[in-house]
Design goal:
Length: 415
């Protein structure tokens, strides 16, 4: 009999990351059949048409010109003060809420999602997320004895399902008197959906209605990891200004990430940004997150913070960086449009796409579909409720041809 040494709360199934496993198989296929004959839509990172990871020049020129000490040094536990200023500008742009705001640096957006879920839920509580979700929400929650409830992101007309959100939200708040809901918008992973400003009003109205009971504590975590690839201009940041003048018992935490917007995935930098009408509540947030930083990873990556600071402080560098992001965003939009258009042409059902790295295809037997697609040299991630196609990783040409292949394979399985 095998012996287990791990404490019960930390014992999990022996599972490897499914996405990285599929990515390795895609790489094998590329080596065997040539890149032109393989569609690798596995990883959630921007890749150019030749299959190389896109690394923004403005970011890496800055990184490589940093003095060694600015790379090697510890960062402050809460993050460098200049970074905590710059990150608010990078996140909100022209739409900073009129409220008390404090930021704490975290290693990537993951760290800030962690703070939102763990520091604002009691063990045994349930958080509320959409049924199309980024799986680390569950991993983080279960690590701390928190459970997850899902609402249906879309109704049968493929519109944002505000009715189901309301029902689940009110069920949970009634039971727990405290609720963390994580909304991954704009540019949702895995669907590419972004809540419209009107849909945000509906969400906030539900929160405000429930905030009339002063016993209720409502925490909205906005995971905006992909915000830099949403919209054409800055219209997808407009919703931030709605977080002004909220009741004290609605607290908003923005989970900000440098991973995508600065192509610094491995450099691990982000921030948790707390927004409240009440100064004490953001103070409490700041010290709670600082404690959690110290307890979990001590401090963030100094070099990544320095890069943001230096780009933000020099208007010319800011402009050059913004232009580079814009170019990348345009490339991504063209790919996504090609995929959406081709899906329409061949009659492949996809979920409503607005922005970002991914498009999703609802399909019950997704595991089987993903496996069958590998026989066509196409590598697409299977989720519980469908397939996730990463337009961020596939050229426009291939985004045009992929829907027909997927449709053919799904039809073959269905007959
Ligand atoms: C939905 C979502 N949230 C947050 C993140 C944050 O990632 P990181 O911790 O690398 O910044 C990601 C990255 O894949 C994501 O897809």
């Amino acid at each position: 009999m095998s012996i287990s040494m791990v404490a019960e709360h930390a014992r999990w199934p022996k599972e490897n990351d499914a996405i990285f496993g599929l990515a390795a198989r895609a790489k094998e296929a590329i080596d065997k059949y040539g890149r032109e004959n393989v569609i690798d839509s596995t990883l959630g990172a921007l890749v150019d048409d030749e299959g190389n990871l896109i690394c923004l020049e403005t970011v890496y020129n800055e990184l490589k010109s940093l003095p060694n000490a600015a790379i090697a040094a510890y960062a402050q536990v809460a993050g460098q003060p200049d970074y905590l200023e710059a990150v608010q500008q990078a996140c909100f742009g022209r739409y900073k809420p009129d409220a008390h705001i404090r930021a704490v640096a975290t290693p990537g957006g993951t760290g800030s999602v962690r703070h939102g879920i763990v520091n604002y839920s009691n063990p045994g509580d349930s958080i509320l997320i959409a049924d199309w979700f980024w799986s680390p929400y569950v991993t983080i929650s279960e690590e701390y004895g928190i459970t997850v409830t899902t609402f249906e992101l879309f109704n049968d007309k493929n519109q944002f399902n505000i009715a189901d959100f309301k029902e689940k939200f009110e069920d949970l708040i009634k039971k727990q008197k405290r609720l963390v809901t994580v909304l991954n918008t704009p540019a949702n992973n895995p669907t590419g959906y972004s809540l419209s400003d009107e849909e945000w009003d509906e969400v906030l109205n539900i929160a405000k209605e429930n905030a009339k009971d002063p016993e209720n504590k409502i925490i909205i975590v906005v995971d905006c990891a992909y915000i830099d690839y949403a919209g054409v201009g800055d219209e997808r940041r407009k919703f931030f200004s709605k977080f002004s003048n909220l009741p004290d018992n609605i607290f908003v935490i923005i989970a900000y990430s440098m991973s995508k917007g600065y192509t610094m995935y491995g450099m691990r930098s982000g921030a948790a940004i707390g927004i409240s009408s009440n100064e004490d509540i953001v103070e409490e947030f700041y010290y709670s997150c600082m404690h959690a930083n110290r307890a979990n990873w001590s401090n963030g990556t100094r070099a990544a913070m320095e890069v943001m600071i230096r780009i933000a402080k020099d208007p010319e560098k800011t402009k050059a960086y913004e232009n580079e992001v814009k170019e990348t965003k345009t490339m991504l939009r063209k790919r996504a449009e090609a995929f959406v258009e081709a899906s329409k042409e061949v009659g492949l059902e996809i979920l409503p796409y607005r922005d970002g790295f991914f498009v999703s295809i609802p399909y019950e037997n997704a595991k089987k579909a993903s496996e069958e697609l590998t026989k066509e040299n196409m590598f697409v991630v299977a989720l519980k409720k469908g397939l996730r196609f990463a337009v961020c990783a596939v050229s426009e040409e291939k985004c045009k041809t992929a829907p027909a292949i997927i449709k053919k394979v799904l039809d073959r399985i269905d007959t």
